[in-house]
Amino acid sequence: SSTIRNFAPAEQLFITEGNGFQILIRALCDTTNVRARKYALFLTLHFVRTQPTLVKNVIETDPGVVSEILATVVNGANEHDLDVSEGVLQLLIALAESDADVAQVMVTENAIPLFQQRLERLEAHSDKNENILVEIGMLRTLVSKLTSLSTKPVIHVHQRSTATATNGATATSVASAATGTPFIATNEWQKVQSGQAV
Fold first, then answer.
1. Could you tell me the CA-to-CA distances from 106 to 99, 124, 156, 161 in Å, in that order?
2. Residue 180 and residue 97: Cα distance in Å, rounded?
3. Cα–Cα distance for residue pair 161/163, rounded to 1 Å
4. Cβ of 118: how many Cβ atoms within 10 Å?
5. pLDDT tens track for 58-67
6. How far apart are CA 90 and CA 105, in angstroms?
7. Per-residue confidence at 148, pLDDT binned at 50, 70, 90?
8. Does residue 107 contact residue 142 with C-beta atoms inside 8 Å?
């Protein structure tokens, strides 16, 4: 962490060529070593907040990493350490907020029913301590965010590119028609030549 954090070239190499993000997730999900989990969680959160595009590329290529994080929430693997429990939920919230496509991967990986399952289990506790109440609140935030997303149509990156390519040629003329502003050619290629069909 100390050798690559906040040094962009090293961070990029770690994530793109060293499978660093996946390694961190594996460490985060290894419940036998709480100290390693905390270190992994700290660095993973850092990457989600500072390198969202790189993280998005990893998740879209390997959505299984999201499933691994979700599993630690649902099976209660985090509840024995408050720092890990809150940190993992903060990580999931950060992922959901980092990019609509990343959040959609979480929806596809059944995050909503898994969170609801965990919520039901926590709310069934007769004696809800502070830790449980904090987790309930964060889970409700996640369910709300993802439910809102799942009711909206999602335009993926390749679809946006296609739409831009299809509509780009007419965008100027449509805008001009809508505003009543005549189109003004800015170079010779945009000028209509004598006898040219339009």
1. 11, 25, 14, 23
2. 39
3. 5
4. 21
5. 999 999 899 8
6. 17
7. confident
8. no
